[in-house]
UniProtKB/TrEMBL annotation:
Coiled coil: none annotated. The lineage of its organism: Bacteria, Bacillati, Actinomycetota, Actinomycetes, Kitasatosporales. SUPFAM superfamilies: JAB1/MPN domain. Keywords: Hydrolase, Metal-binding, Metalloprotease, Protease, Zinc. This is JAB domain-containing protein. InterPro entries: JAB_dom_prok.
Amino acid sequence: MTPQPVTAVLLTAQAARVITTELRTADHTIETGGILLGHHIRDTVTVRHAGTPGPAAVRTPTYFLRDLAHAQALADEAFTTDASVWIGEWHTHPTGPPAPSARDTATYRRLLGDAELGFHSIVALILAYRGGRWTESAWTCHGQCVTPVELTNSLVDKPL
């Protein structure tokens, strides 16, 4: 059965901790991020685990590419722990708004089009650093549509 389109993203405290720790130590002038792992049930995605960029990640002011081996190790561990699967990505935008760029959208569509990956939708959590504080947004890509979705357990409500 194909899951319903995502309308809400629930970020667990464990996943939020990983992201906020990375944000505290990251260079705010270059992108950072990681994978999101969890479960898609009905119209809600629960993010149980979030990854860090990994030691071999590529990070520039306008581009982020996760360390694939690092991400795979986290995905294997999360699946063994609670059957979490890859549901999306999180990353920062040091020079733009917390919204998918054209490159982000193209990446999500490419992932959706890869039958081996088996994605029905991709969830993206994007954070931007402005005026000494983080802003965030959650997005889903389903088919050709990229739409904002409700994020429960906001990161910006937590001290960084």
